[in-house]
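pipeline: protein-struct stage 2 | run 1193 | TNF receptor-associated factor 5-like protein
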Amino acid sequence: MIILAGFVRRVLEAGRSKIARSSLFPSGVEDGIRPDNDPRHTGATVFPAGQEHRESHLRSPVTVPIQSHSRRPQRTLSRQEDVLSTVQLEVQQVSRGLPGLEELEQLRKSLDAVMQEVSAAEALREHLGTLEENLKRHSGLLDLHAAQLNRNKQHLQELEATSYDGKMIWKIQDFRKRRDAEAGGQQPCLSSMPFHTGRCGYKMAIKAYLNGDGEGRGTHLSLYVVLMPGDFDALLQWPFKQTVTLSVLDQSGAGNHRSLSFRPDPVSKSFQQPAAESVSNVAVGFSCFISLNKLETPQNAVYIKEDTLFVKAKVDMAGLEHL
């Protein structure tokens, strides 16, 4: 706004200066003043040289009219006034479109406030990024601790449930639900907690297919026993030679348990020392232990009560050396 005002002042001063020169000096005389004896300047009567008085009586003197220069400064002044009016109008229009000093100050303050908010938002974004990285790191640590806690919990359950006398009674709950899930292809095999033939003896477990396995699939209950890697395998005799008995226990109190036994084949790899990196050897047992009809509706026993089945494994400890 201040720049425009200065421009207008310069335009006005230039116009006034030009108008002043035009009024003092007619066109063509601005660069210098003619001498007083110039006939064009004085408007005097002109006679040819040497004939001033001789021809005075023959004709009237030739009068050179004084050239009028008063209209040109007026036209120039009028044009300058028009230009000045146009400039003033444009300045007024521009001035109305520009904010005042107070408004400019308010805009500056608003811009400063916006810049501060942007800086704060950027700092917050960086802080959130740091928090996200910390969250990921802590989440990873939490997952590790949760996995370790689950392992410790499982180990504790194994310690509580395990036995060291070569016997294992396994309680299977939700029998029908689990059998239906197995028939649908989910969790085809159930495994018991490990049991041992002594504190430093063989480590074993029971496996059950509630809907049958192999020849007994869909018709029989299948029961197996597996040898697992133990902490003292290097001190034990291999292959495993002890007779194993598997039973489905009668819950009626009559003691009409269903039992089948097998004696290990010393040539079978299932009874050799398990590899340390393996989970277990190949399971050995009975694919057709008992039909599902007899299991659910026996004549003289109750094998399934309150949707619960009890399975027992017993190792013949005769001739087994205890460390």
